[in-house]
Amino acid sequence: MGRAAAFILRRRGGKGWHWTDIVTWVWLIGGLFIMFGPALWLMFSSFKTPAALAEFPPSILPYTSQQVSVEGHDKPLTLYDVTLPDGTTKKLAEVRRIGLFSQMVDPAKPDETIRVNINSRKPVQELSFATENYTGPFVHFDFFRYLWNSVFVTVMATLITLIVNSMAAFALSKYEFRGRSVAMLIILATLMVPLSVIMVPLYSIISALGLFNNLWGVILPTVATPTGVFILRQYMLTIPDELIDAARMDKASEWQIYWRIVLPLTAPALAVLAIFSVVWRWNDFLWPLIVLSRKELYTLQVGLSIYSGELNVQWHFILAMTVVTMIPVVLVFIFLQRFITTGIAGTGLK
Amino acid sequence: MTAPLETASKPSAVQHLGAIALAPVRLVMGLIDRPLRALQRMTGLSGMAIFFLAPNMLIFGIFVLLPLFINFVYSTTGGSALFLPERSYVGADQYQRLFDCSNYLDPLTCQEDAFWTAVSNTFWFVVLQVTLMIGAALVTALILNRNLAARSFWRAVFFFPVLLSPVVVGLIWRWILQRQGLLNFILYPFGVDPYTWLTDRTWSFAAAVGVSLWAHMGFYALILLAGLQAIPKDLYEAADMDGTKPARVFWRITLPLLMPNLVVVIVLALIRSVQVFDEVYILTGGGPGTSTLFITQYIYETGFVSQPRNPGLAAAASILMGLVLVVLTLVQLGLGRRGEKKGKR
């Protein structure tokens, strides 16, 4: 321990501690708790039973009171640690509570009932994970449907984004043609058009196309992202034109040049865009909320928001569903975070 | 097919799987090639360029440009009908309704009091959130730029919430701020009675600011960190040799050289902040009362939720918000230009 502390507290060049060092470590450790704490708290909570969720002060880990079945009683009884008048403690099961007293039995001797003051008993707690929080939503909420809808939207939108944007980026980086700068300008100008500004007319267009209450109505407006065109175009500009000229010499068609030469060489940028797109589409909320009004079409985000907005929120299910909704993003965070951070740092786009 | 590249190692199982998964894509791409060759013969290279650009431009035109233009038309029509031909022309009535106030500083004297409440809420939200955001992001970036052990780990820590969906963010914090929640649990030993924070007007507004700060700070810190790392190290070494005080180094070297990034970050934060909606909507639903009602929620509810809905009014409000965003974007472009010129000099 001492050596570990010495290692952590060691300063470069053996210099003493400066106040900025203290600020640094307070900020970092504080950040660690504030950034991860809330999500971890949610995860621990999601394994608690509804009764444990209503407790205050709450426990960090999911505990439930232990139950025993006692001869002569139909229902399982709650087990308590009881301090008897003679000072000894015993594990007893509660039969019923009358006022300040409770009638208890020793599970070993089910015939004798003992009267105990309720202040001298404490429920026996055991660690137990309420996995029914996770299985319940599949039965009660058609959770599988939402999961499938989310996966469908995410995968389809990402595939189309990659194809459509890479084609456009190819045209804008490797061809000279009339209207190229106009096209670039249009894309640049609309980079800053947010959904909230065009919500109303976009909705009418989607309806006119018959895409209201249709997953494609969620997918299509999102796939021509200017960000994607930019990332890919910047990358394609670095591919030498000689490569393309050589391929033309060998009688390759333009389509073949696109998908056999340019696309494989753009793989790193495509990967970045794919990761971005998966996170964006998985997290989309407002637009799906507007387009999807039929229950069986909800994505996870919409379903979660609807059920958490009900008068009587079934928090034990909501928490578990939230954790499931977080899983893909957490996986991206653990394994692919590096791509995203370098992507953002390089382009300043999110 | 072309001959495979000579590689020392055998292709791995992953590569085999990848090849199998890509096989149908290859087939389709190959089949498309034939008609496309014919197209190429007919139209030449420039025709192919248009062909490559067309799908993107088509989707873009239908789902971004077209709505952008007909939004203006919508804002001059009335009624609750959805499709333009069924709507009646009312001229500037919707704008007049939005601006019909006897005292602009008091939202309750306006005909559309919800709109002005939303505007005022959004204004204070933007001021508070952007100020705190820039401060926190700058401190985080400066700290991450120090000589740290496991820097990429610490960078990831602050970046984590950025990836979470707004719905998840909203629910996480609703769960923490409820009566039996984590916040009350932490404050309990200090003698604070359990409190339902989100039913209090002031606290729920503070929560909206804090939660959006929590969710987005890492993003801005990351851009600033990239800016800090681009500052040449020899400047610091020179300052160190001259025995310059750290505070002076910060004001004279770090801050001026970080300025271009800082401007980008401030304007980006402003643009995002004006549009605040998702996580706050899940967190508070705009309440209690209208204490956390922001402009985007006003547009959404006017256009889609309220009965009868009023797409014209929503369109007018969204155009006003769009104007603010356009001004902010132009400011960013202008400042960016100036920054570039300075840099060249």
Automatic annotation (TrEMBL), chain A:
Domain ABC transmembrane type-1: 147-336
Transmembrane portions of the chain: 21-44, 146-170, 182-203, 215-236, 257-280, 315-336
Topology in membrane: Multi-pass membrane protein
Principal location: membrane
Top-level lineage group: Bacteria
Pfam families tied to this protein: BPD_transp_1 (PF00528)
Nucleotide-binding in keyword set: no
Span of the signal peptide: none
Localization terms from the record: Cell membrane
Keywords from the UniProt entry: Cell membrane, Membrane, Transmembrane, Transmembrane helix, Transport
InterPro entries, sorted: MetI-like, MetI-like_sf
Family that this chain belongs to: Belongs to the binding-protein-dependent transport system permease family.
Name used for this protein in its record: Alpha-1,4-digalacturonate transport system permease protein
Organism: Phyllobacterium ifriqiyense
Automatic annotation (TrEMBL), chain B:
Keyword vocabulary terms for this entry: Cell membrane, Membrane, Transmembrane, Transmembrane helix, Transport
Gene3D superfamilies listed in its UniProt record: MetI-like (1.10.3720.10)
InterPro entries associated with the record: ABC_transporter_permease, MetI-like, MetI-like_sf
Subcellular location: Cell membrane
Cell membrane as UniProt keyword: yes
ABC transmembrane type-1 domain: residues covered: 119-332
Domain of life: Bacteria
Membrane topology annotation: Multi-pass membrane protein
Sequence intervals crossing the membrane: 44-70, 123-144, 156-176, 203-228, 249-271, 313-335
One Pfam short name: BPD_transp_1
UniProt family annotation: Belongs to the binding-protein-dependent transport system permease family.
Matches recorded under PANTHER family: ABC TRANSPORTER PERMEASE PROTEIN, DIACETYLCHITOBIOSE UPTAKE SYSTEM PERMEASE PROTEIN NGCF
Name under which the protein is recorded: Alpha-1,4-digalacturonate transport system permease protein
